[in-house]
Write a structure and sequence with these properties.
The complex is a heterodimer of chains A (about 325) and B (about 675). Chain A folds into 2 domains: about 70 residues, no CATH class; about 220 residues, Orthogonal Bundle (MetI-like fold), CATH 1.10.3720. Chain A is built from 13 helices and no strands. With about 675 residues, chain B is of the alpha/beta class. Chain B has a domain of about 280 residues: Rossmann fold (3-Layer(aba) Sandwich), CATH 3.40.50.300. Helix content of chain B is about 30%, strand content about 20%. In chain B, helix 7 runs parallel beside helix 8. Chain B starts with a strand and ends in an 8-residue tail after the last strand. Classes of the chains: A mainly alpha (about 325), B alpha/beta (about 675). Chains A and B meet through helix 9 and helix 10 of A and helix 2 of B.
Amino acid sequence: MLIYIVKRIGLAVLIILLAVLALFVMLHSIPGDPVSIALGPRATPEIQAAYAAKMNLDKPLFTQFLIFLGNVLTGDLGTDVFSNRSVAKTLLGQLPYTISLAVASLGWAVALGIPMGCISATKPNGWLDRITGLVSIGTIAVPSFLVSIWAILVFAIHLNIFPVIGAGDQGDLADMALHLVLPSFAVGLGWVGYLARMVRASMLEVMGENYIRSARAFGLTTQTIIYRYALRVAILPTITLIGVGFGGLLSGTVFAEIIFARPGIGKVIYDMVLNRNFPVVQGAVMMTVALYAVVTLASDIIVSILDPRVRESL
Amino acid sequence: MEALLDIHRLSVEFNTARGRVHALRDVSISVPKGKVVGIVGESGSGKSTLVWAVMRLLAGNSIVADGKITFRGEDVLSFDESALREFRGESVSMVFQDPMTSQIPVLDYRRQMTDILYRRKGLSRQEKIRMAARFMNRVGIPDADDRLRHFPHQFSGGMRQRAGIAMALLMDPALLIADEPTTALDVTMEAQIIHLIREAQTDFGATVMVISHNLGLIAELCDKVVVMYAGEVVEQGDVKDIFFNAHHPYTQALLECDPSHDLKQERHFPTIPGDVPDLHGTPKGCVFAQRCRHASDICQYKRPGEYPIAGGHASDAHAARCHRYDPGGVWKELPKSETPKASTRIDVHVERDAPPLLEIKDLRVRFPVMGRVRALASGISDPHVDAVAGVSLAIRTGETLGLVGESGSGKTTLARAVLGLNRVHSGSIRFRKEELVGLPENTYKKMRRDIAMMFQDPVGSLSPRQTVGQLLSEPLIIHGERDLPLRDAAEKLCDMVSLPRNFLSRYPHELSGGQARRVGVARALALSPALVIADEPTAGLDVSVQGEVLNLMIELQALHGLSYLIISHNLPVIRQVSDILAIMYLGRIVEYGACSQVFEKPAHPYSEALVRGTPRPDPSRRRKLVSIEGEVPSLTNRPGGCEFHPRCPYATDRCRKEQPSPTRLVDGRTVLCHFPLAG
């Protein structure tokens, strides 16, 4: 078990390193001289040389990569071109908003999707199954920005239950949670359907397995059979799916942060791309990659805890 | 005698896309308290449907059309949910066919067993765990406390089935149903499990119902036997009546087909011609009429009643559903159109003096068990296991070599090495004097024309998207015979294995097991090879079909002068077809020699265990004890000295310390034992 986790962590580190390399290669294959792009056409050769030396652009490519890598690993993601502030600091300030939004969205998806999947799998092709099937396909099909706008119209404007602008008062947890409800619902809703379908399919498969029939033959209760036996096995592919899908969820937070005017990484990326503030975009991409790697790692570890066979396969 | 379970005129039907299937018709069985009742039948006989009907666990598309199931005087079919839960597990428990798939893989045994004990509300969690451990010990699993934390995949097949029996006994059920309890197991494990079930029956005073197609197991275990065919009970009675005084033509044919009943080497297997009738719609007359050698006119249109047979043993009434025994009937034996009494032994010409067709010398196949880095880190200098550890054998033209061993003995690895599908570590494989080891792939491909393979799983080894015609011409295309009229070639192959030509356009899922096997034989013979390697050629086939396939293989051998390397764990079959026998244990051949000699007087204790371990369809000769204890050790952990010594009943100090070298006996056999039992 320990060996497995250590191996998986090693793999995650490798993925992050490769991402750094890819980012570095991409940056250097952008046509044009980075110095003249950064300083503009009116800079004198002296100023350009000084800038190049300061940014290590005069060194060999490989050395540049090592410096870049070193910086990334020590948490130095460069400085904001406009404000001269540390990119890492700017982003770390935004990170909690994005993570809480992503986790809350996942919460919606899991809280609605998994029970829906279980319900439809217990009586396949029954009326409940058909209804959940329709709802699932609906949630997958409706674009999230529409959900956001409807949610704002219904819950914020007509009913006036939930706040819709910003992330709430710093420090006031209840207010912040209230501000999370609608944006996370908008982001998570698309995932409800996916999870429900996924859980339904794997539940149906598992319910046909011999060991479920043995459990019935041993007279276990339906509750135990469905929620402790079948779900325990059926949930495994779903967890992997959530891990992989987390990337999609992160990109989903971008528009939610824009529509609901929330702070967050997505909002930063959006603003900074418009401003061509490349160091910040770069840093934000790095952070997203790292986040993604960590979530995949977590989902793999959870699966290995739940499924003893996985532990021994690696 | 008091009946614990009484099934009265039960009929079960299934709604399918192709109409209603009458899976069980008018089945009446009573299971007397404290007895072991065996239900015998081939696939499609409805024996599993019967079990699931009793457990009320039939599939959703089933209808209990008629009949009654009474357990201790209560009507099982009218049980509600909570009564059913009490009935299942508390009153009736089950041992399943395949312990690998019938135990949940993600929960350990402690959890699975305490879950079953959920109704013992008075017990604390600790007490439940202690009880589980006690039962694990009881079924012969040592260190139960530790073993309870294991998951099913960490157990070997035999251990899993032991644990399955422990789970079934946990609630002290009045009735234990065992559904093909040894089908997934090896011979020595089978003997142990039979013994365990019998012990459980006497110790716990349980009533047992055993479902099996294995007549040997039924004879060893049961007091009363019920023979089923195509959804009906055709004959039932005391075990001795069924085995020694069978009356129904189907029972007689079934007993005759069982290769283990005949100890002579006949090279011809009795079969039951024809197929199980289609159960869409009710059969009009007797279900067996189409295949019955005694069938008369009346059998075709009138369903026979269950007629008592006089002079039965014990109190279990012996009865058969056959018109011949109708006391008031008008049965007339038809004048028999003399069925050609199959010309018994077919002799195959073996060139005794010619050099062997295939000669294997000191072959070694190894597999890495872990990566180099990990091996270095854990200080293991040689991270390999020898799946095949120095095997030598030879097959001459026209000869059949039977390779026998339990799972993990390396027999399939050996076969794959001959075909160049596994890398050989050392040793030599000579085919027609030509060395195959180290041959580059393009030269090997040419050799494979002459060495054909019949794969283990008859349906699974055929591509589901190709028709039989395509499947049959595929070997020709691969070996560049495109110019041949493929259609003609495929038709010829069909004729050769006696498949109707219109099967050429069918897909594998439309074939029965026996038909798929025929396609496998035809594919192997497409390129007229000299040597055919058959991996478990009859696994998964019913006895009546098994005979057909083996007869076909033997006929083709005589016709084309083929040599066979037949791999099997089915000793009775191997005994009938082989000239030479090689018995493998942990990658080594422990006994090698003429088949008849090995079976008559096994020289290696392991051969003895295998030969004596096969249950015989003879209820008067039940074995008191299991032949050998324990299980096949893991290849990563070979015992020192003689590798068989931990399981050997004759082991001495010398066996524990010194590894034996092959000894040649006077009769020409080679044995890997310090103290050969014969010769």
